[in-house]
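Section: Multi-chain targets

For targets with more than one molecule, the full set of components is provided together so that the structure can be written out for the assembly as a whole rather than chain by chain. Components appear in the order listed by the source. The example entry contains two components.
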Amino acid sequence: MLFPIAGITVDPIVLILLGFTVGVCGGFFGVGGAFMVTPALNILGFPMPYAIGTDMAHIMGKSLIATSSHRKLGNVDFKAGAILVAGTFPGIELGARLVMKLEAIGVVEPVVRWIYVATLIGIGILMVREQRRIQHCIKLCGPDKCELNKMLDQQRISRRIHAIKLRPMVKLPVSGVEISFWFVFLIALVTGFVAGLLGVGGGFIRVPALIYLIGMPTTVAIGTDLLEIFFSGAFGTLSYAAKGRVDLLAALIMLLGASLGTQIGVIATSYVKGYKIRTFFASTIFLTAVSVLLKQFKFNLAATILLMATALLMSAIIIGSMINIKVQEKRVEVL
Amino acid sequence: MNSYLSFIVDLHKSNLTMYAVVSVVTMASVGFILSTISNIVLAILGIKIEKREKEEL
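Its structure, encoded as tokens over all components, is:
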């Protein structure tokens, strides 16, 4: 099928599958999963600025579906959300303008790809280290003590930040913290810049920042981030579309697959414990980085196969685990 | 559907500001419609999204 705006031909089934698999992962882990979509669209043939812009539009539509499901699970700090939105907008615009500059001098493809590779490998390593630390802690102290240690770790950095009284100070009652406005704004500005540059929601940086730096409870951080992603996605779509770099048709097709995938991913959170398959998720991130590298070195077919197989495998693991647990529950009920 | 697609393509060529507004409105509307449909389907199937009892590690 021809996508006249981006000027390329792609099978729409592949786009629906991509939306579905990323939706499952995103719905399950509470992140948008957009870090896989921009590289995937680029690997499928979309020029990088179109891949980023189209992903932004896809994120926006999908965040509505994910937020409507996740609001039943978590909380939203609207006051923090408003400050985050205010900081994210200029950040996204800066990122989008940098992409346009890079495009104008003809280096946008390799530069964004290498930034992706570095970001994905960095996040993957952090996830594996965190996972090993937790497993080691559980072995030594048991899950309850580990939970307490993790909470103390989170509070250690945020308490230092709370102690800096840089005016104006803002009270965030839902999160239970009082903090300088500028710290929240700065986090939003930086994550907005990354979002605008890479075409992602930025949740994979913003959620840890809200937990460790602001001191938000995890559920509030996820809920607030989802609200913020809708607005940042909308602004990113507006910014990139105004520059002519959004393929609306491709975004709509992916959204069809994502609407089903996201719901399945969110439902799976009620059955499957995330930490059990978080290592697989880290592998997904590493394999996405490898796919981007393959594309950079012109192994287009290998890059496409690896990325699609990775996304499908991760979704299959989540759905398979959910079905397995559901079957076991039924057996117990019968007995 | 086809006429809407040709409208979008024409708009992309002629007026990018309007194209940007239409893009945001379209994605928000379709996202909202799909979200509503999937919530109705889940309700019909009797599937509930439950909060985890304890925050995970």
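The longest strand of chain A covers residues 169-172.
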